[in-house]
Amino acid sequence: MVPPEMSLKIDPFILSGGAGTRLWPLSRHSFPKQFHSLNDELSLLQQTAMRLENADFHSPKIICNQQHRFLAAEQMQQTGLTDYQVILEPVGRNTAAAAAIAALHTASSTNDQPHQEKLILLLPADHYIEKSDKLLEAIVNGVDAAMAGSIVTFGVKPATPEPGYGYIETRAEPDNATSLKVKRFVEKPDTNTAEDFISQNNYYWNAGIFLFTFSTIKKAFNEHAPEIWQCCEAAINAAEKDLDFLRLGESAFSACPDISFDYAILEKAKNITCTPLETAWSDLGKWTSLWQAGEKDQLGNVIKGDVTISKTKNSLAHATDGNSLSLIGLSNVIAVATSDAVLVAAKDSIDDLKQILTAFEKQGRSVLHEHKRVFRPWGASEIIGEGQHYQVKRLLVNPGASLSLQKHHKRAEHWVVVKGTATVQRGSENFTLHENQSTYIPIGELHRLENQQQSVLEIIEVQSGVYLGEDDIERLEDNYGRLGK
């Protein structure tokens, strides 16, 4: 814990912009890994936020893509945390831009501490950290170096020669040092080089967590990446409140270079120190990482969901969406089943998944980017059947939520209530539908669906028409700031 005499509070920013495609088919662009419950009942984002529930931190700020704004907000509400903010990036611009936005946001916030001295913590939303108390201890250990003008990284002693991680080479220091001088960064070495690093005592995995003051990071950006700082400063100045979100200025942020914090700043700056993080850690970047970090049975298997195994060892089996997955007589495999995709791979071949995803990209396969269930600000929709000129969806509308007042120009809709009570506006009519009742929405008809009850409303929606894309929606009224086509 931070000592009582320490008066400085740390401003934490959770970076939640990644896509996590190496965990396909579970993680996809519309619902990336940080929003999934992979190793706990809580999602990775929720676990990260809960680690910061400490008197020594200001309220957390989540930086995410605007596509995920309602998903991030809903998950934060589920934690019970009431004081947080979600900052929306109009486009993805990597971690350097996120770091600059964090610093500029801190400078614009109000509290008694001069903004030049404010401590800023950046940490990814999607990493596994076994012991939260060790993370807090490491952050406290890094405060003095950060206040003295260092950009503080946090390093984990390598447990295996992992070629997919970044490594930090530190200069020789006493074994009990909490602030090690950084000599260089090495990004994703080959296995032989990683084995050589492990044999030495001065290499660490780069945990992707950083601590610095506003004045330190402003100076670093002005020296090494001034264009990023200028674009982000313009984006903060043009930012607008949107419901409970802060939406960055789109044109300014879109002009920002797309580059990581490591390449833009860390590999060029000289004032870098490393504070050891003494706990098990993983970036959960691929399925084998999840197997390594997971709780194993007596035969070395990690299982989640409706999974049955027999004569199987050292494997990972993960089933979602009510699917039943069975493994018999297998060793060292990854098996994942979702509602619309199945992945089976040898553990030592999982890196070849990128070839499958590249093929999907060339084929324009929607399974690469979206699940059949898509989360909306009012609830969720799930495709349960489709064919030429028709599509069947299940709509789950949260208590007190409503869809926008809208119309479609190329499709008609039939609604059947299977659970709950629906309040419907259709043209000039307003009426209520109970279970087993239905209605028809003609092409071009103005309509709205609302759930005024205290339980989830479930609707079966049958769409029919020459075009069924989501962009055939014209919104006239909306509670979530999505007006227009």
CATH topology of the largest domain: Spore Coat Polysaccharide Biosynthesis Protein SpsA, Chain A
**How far apart are the termini?**
51 Å
Number of helices: 11
The biggest sheet, with number of strands, parallel, antiparallel or mixed sense and barrel status, is:
6 strands, antiparallel
State which percent range the strand residues make up: 25-35%
- Low-confidence runs of at least 5 consecutive residues: 1-6
Query: How many DSSP-defined strands?
Result: 30
Could you state the oligomeric state of the chains shown?
Answer: single chain
The CATH architecture of the largest domain can be given as: Alpha-Beta Complex
